[in-house]
Each structure stands twice: as C-alpha cells, then as structure tokens.
Write a structure and sequence with these properties.
about 160 residues; alpha+beta; Alpha-Beta Plaits; six-stranded antiparallel β-sheet; two-stranded antiparallel ribbon; 10 strands; about 25% helix; about 30% strand; globular
Length: about 160
C-alpha cells in the first residue's frame, strides 16, 4: 500500500455543483489528512468554463503532496474523498460535486487500466496548468516537457483567479 520513500505528487481539485468553494476547501483538508502524506502547497482557486461539457463554471485548484502511498493507493484515497463528498460518476465530463485527479506522481509515467499519470489531458487544460504553475513554477510533465511551455497554446480558455 505504501512505497518506501516519499514522492511528490500533484492533485487537481475541481467542482461545479453545490457549494463548490466549500467542496474545494473540504477536499484540501481531507488531502492534508491522508495517511503517509503531507500537504506541501495548495494553489489559489480559479474559475473556469467547462471544456467538452455543459454546466456551470468550475472552481479549480491544485494541491501538492509528499506521500509514501503508492500511486494506486493514493488514487483510491482520492476516490474515497470524492465519494464522501457526494461524487457520482454518471458520465464522462458530467458536472460534479468534487473531482480529484492525480495529475503527477514524481516523474513517473503510468499507463494502467485504472490510472494514467501524468493525467492525459493536463497539458491541454489552463484550469490545471495555471494553478499548478502557481505552486510549482518549474513543473515538468513527463513525456511532454515544462508545464509552462504548454500554457501559451491555451490562451483562448477562459480562466480567472479568484480572490481568497
């Protein structure tokens, strides 16, 4: 269930149903309380339009953790947090009370049935890259390159940093 050493991992946090701001705050608290895991940083919150979906705007953030959990165990913990906060997986890109995505797990590339890391579309999403770069300005996406290099191509995606 755990790895021998700690690994730096990045988690995308998003919500667009109910009290999305409270959902993000509760998710950060839950992430900070995960076993064998330390919350290192949390980005400001951003508002963004849904991509490839309909529904209300999303609120998004990124959390950075150091964890001794293996990637699959960390994903399982994140899915438990989603479930406790009312997440229902009805269809792809459906509006949601909470969405937690394992974006990066060290410099690993994982291509499993249940887990793909780095997150396969993170380099195409301003709502992931902007908060990620707030907390890790030198973030590198394995197999892609520096996260900052991906951002100019996403200038057309509406995103707004919210005041705390």
């Amino acid at each position: 269930m755990t790895t021998a050493a700690r690994t730096r991992a990045c988690i995308g946090i998003g919500a667009n149903l109910g009290d999305a701001r409270a959902a993000l705050d509760q998710a950060r608290e839950a992430i900070a309380g995960l076993p064998h895991t330390t919350l290192v940083a949390s980005s400001p919150v951003y508002r963004s339009a849904p991509i490839d979906a309909a529904g209300p705007d999303y609120l998004n953030a990124v959390a950075v953790v150091d964890t001794a959990l293996a990637p699959e165990a960390l994903l399982g913990q994140l899915q438990r947090i989603e479930h406790r906060q009312g997440r229902v997986r009805s269809q792809r890109n459906a509006p949601r009370t909470l969405d937690l995505d394992l974006l990066l797990y060290g410099d690993q590339q994982i291509a499993g049935a249940a887990l793909v890391v780095p997150h396969p579309r993170m380099h195409e999403r301003a709502f992931v890259l902007k908060p990620l770069l707030d907390v890790l300005p030198d973030a590198h996406i394995p197999g892609i390159g520096p996260a900052a290099d991906c951002l100019p191509a996403l200038a057309g995606q509406r995103i707004e940093k919210l005041v705390p």
